[in-house]
Amino acid sequence: MSDHFKSGFVTIIGRPNVGKSTLMNHLIGQKIAITSNKPQTTRNRIQTVYTDMERGQIVFLDTPGIHQAKNKLGEYMVNVAERTLEEVDVILWLVEPSNFIGAGEQHIIKRLKKIKTPVILVINKVDTVSRDKILEFIDTYRKVYDFAEIVPASALRGENMDTVLDLIFQYLPYGPQFYDEETITDQPERAIVAEIIREKALHALEDEIPHGIAVCIDKMKERSGQQIIDIEATIVCERDSHKGIVIGKGGAMLKKIGSNARYEIERLLDSKVNLKLWVKVKKDWRDSDSMIKNFGYREER
Fold it and tell me: By CB count within 10 A, which of 39, 88, 200, 285 is most buried?
């Protein structure tokens, strides 16, 4: 490995729904962070790894969105996100293209002013605005914080993603390779499978089910001598009425969630999958410390 090899940790921050997971998936070139048009989809620090044998290795920490917490799960998510800011080498901050800096952004600026990490501002979704407006938006943000760089981009269309990568490498320290080049994520497969099921549930269910669903993997085992993985998972919701909606008429909704999830899990694991889903009600799980831990949302000390 050359002396010019760089390596380090990068976190992507931004208000919920600004396109962080889409950006991550585009940079890595594979679907890892789950994407949904419902806010607060990402709950754990998903580490994804980008390796370029010429330049170096970037380990991305996709933090939960930084926002004002409303319950214990919310507090946990904010703590994880804010602690990450001090542990990384570069921060990518994603914002929407706008002249208005709202309360959510102000909250993030306040946090950023307390740390010394270089911040690259990515003004995302520029495909939705006219070009002459973009300079105005850059100017608006340049006045409120001393950014290392400001890049207009579109994660959805892949515009300026190469520039974003170039700039990250520019600010990374020289260092060793943390993971071999085959590694894309350090999340155990069970965690990713749970997130895929949760994503498919969020997509299939209308707005009537809020974030009060979690997924537990009860069993994940390869059948001996066969290329089939048996997976049993439980979708946990907060109310009895939600349970009925998740199951659907004659089990139709649960079937739909299951077949959509199975298709993607088979691609992820490169194997046939036999997926069984159950639905349970655990009231107020989001305000119970022990339940949050059971569902895999553990704070690393």
Answer: 200
